[in-house]
Each structure stands twice: as structure tokens, then as C-alpha cells.
Amino acid sequence: MILTLKLPMQGPLNHVNAYLIRDGNESLLIDTGLPTQEAMLTLTNYLKEYGYPNYVIITHYHPDHIGLVRLFKDSNIFIHEKEIEYLNFILSNEYEKEMKNYLLSNGFPEDIIDRMFRNRDRFYEIIKGVNFNKVIDGDTIKVGGSEIKILWTPGHTMGHICIKYNEILFCGDHILPNITPNVSLLRVNDNPLKSYLDSLDKIEKINGKIYPAHGEPINNVKERIEEIKEHHKNRLEEILKIIEMKGKVNGFEIAMNISWYKKWDELSNFDKQLAIGETLAHIKYLLEKNAIKQTNIGNKIYYTKN
Ligand SMILES: [Zn+2]
């Protein structure tokens, strides 16, 4: 039996779906919701009715998925090994130094950058005292009479996983029905958009129902994947055009000229952060494709067409 636990969150997404699978005399929870009072009440009410799970799988480290993991200290908790690596990295001074420097070199304003690094401490609180079991691609977990399979789908985060249970795929934020999942650059040497597009190919071959972490189940997987690929293709072309038109630009100029759903100045601070990550992920993809060239002048980075 599969139960969808709709947990509240603010903003356009409105909710996150946690899923509770009951198989034989065991149960598995996929994702936990935001670390808010409201989400905790909703989740614990569900669990009072259906029981606490033996196993918990976290699809990725974002707060709406890992947020309430501390409620499950008595369960076996699983997460991809890369997510632990990234959580540690994000909490490190090395990350702050590396990324701040990179963002400044790309011309992004200091006040936005400072805000990006401000809330990292909450991850300490979220994962404090939690024992994670690390999984990798292809791992299986026995729950009741069934085998749950882990599929590594890096991109939205570098340790993002989907979970296969019989003919059903729980896809976390890898594919969403109503928005294109954010793909952001978190480490200077990553190429998350390349990883993401490769991970879409990995899922395309899967038949069966797809349960996303936000919104309703997806029936037309292939179609949805094509739409998402098209979106990134268009954005890459748009960035190439911006660079072509302006000749030599930095990352901030590119970000400001992309046609987001609102004008740059009208975007919320949170949206700006997502937009910055998204811009850098696309720039990185174009660089590694040799479609554009990077020039460093002093500590400033500029892009030109190749
Ligand atoms: Zn999410």
C-alpha cells in the first residue's frame, strides 16, 4: 500500500509529498518535509494513524525533503553518499571561500551573495545526531516482501536518488509536473546540467507510474522529459545569443538578461539565488561543450563566444 502524505510548505510549490509504503509488516517513508511546526504536526498526525516507518529514504538534502529527518532516529535512514559529501562541503569554510570568490568574480552583487550563505547553519540543526546509511546507485533495500531499488539521478543535487518499488518510481525533484526542477552549480568543478540531462535519459526508459515530490503523479513521462530538455535547450541558446550580442559579458550580466518568469529586479531574493545557480550551471555546460570561452582578467571572469 502506498500513502501520499501531503506536507505543507509556503510558496508556489504549496506542499511536498512524502510517501509511506507499507509492505507486509514493514514500512518505508520517502522524504520528511520542511522543519516547520506546521509540517511536523501534519506528518506526526499521519504517523499516529499509520505508524512510524522502519526505513526512511531521503531523495536529496534540500530542507523540504530532509527537514524532519530527526524525528526518525529509531528508523534506518538512507541517503546517497554524495549528499553527505555535499552537506559536509556546504557547511565547510572551503565552500564559502570557493563559491563566494567565484560568484564575486562572475560579477554578482555582494548583498545577494551574502544572503546565499547566511542560512547554511540550519543544516546543522536538521541533521544533528542523525545516523545516515549511505547508498549508491543500484543498491537494494528489503522492505517487507519487496525489494526497493536505488537509482542515482544527479543533477537537481549531485546525490539525488529516485526509488523504484515494483512498477512505481518515486522521483523526488528529478522530474516535476508543473515546474522545471532547479539545477544549480554548487561546486566550481561540477557540471550539474550535464549530469541532470544524463539522469533524465536514465529515467526515460522506465515504464510505469512516476510519483514526484511536488504535485500529482506523472503519467506522460517521456513527454514531460522532452519538455524539460526543450526548456534547457532554449535557455542554452538564449545565453549564447546574449553572449553573441554583447561580445564579452560576466555571469551577472547574463543572469539579468535571461527571460525569467519575471524581470530580474522583480524576482524575490530566493528566486534570484535559484536564478544565479541556474545561470552558472548553464554557463558551465556551454564552457565544457566548448561553445563559449572563459577569460580571467585579474579576479574577474568574462565569457565570449568560441
Ligand atoms: Zn523539493
Automatic annotation (TrEMBL):
This chain belongs to which protein, by name? Metallo-beta-lactamase domain-containing protein
Give one Pfam family, short name only. Answer: Lactamase_B
Q: InterPro entries, per this entry?
A: Metallo-B-lactamas, RibonucZ/Hydroxyglut_hydro, Sec-metab_biosynth-thioest, WH-like_DNA-bd_sf
Q: Which residues form the Metallo-beta-lactamase domain?
A: 15-214
Spell out the coiled coil positions from the record.
Answer: none
Query: Gene encoding this chain?
Result: ST0057
- Leader sequence segment: none
Q: Which SUPFAM superfamilies match?
A: Metallo-hydrolase/oxidoreductase
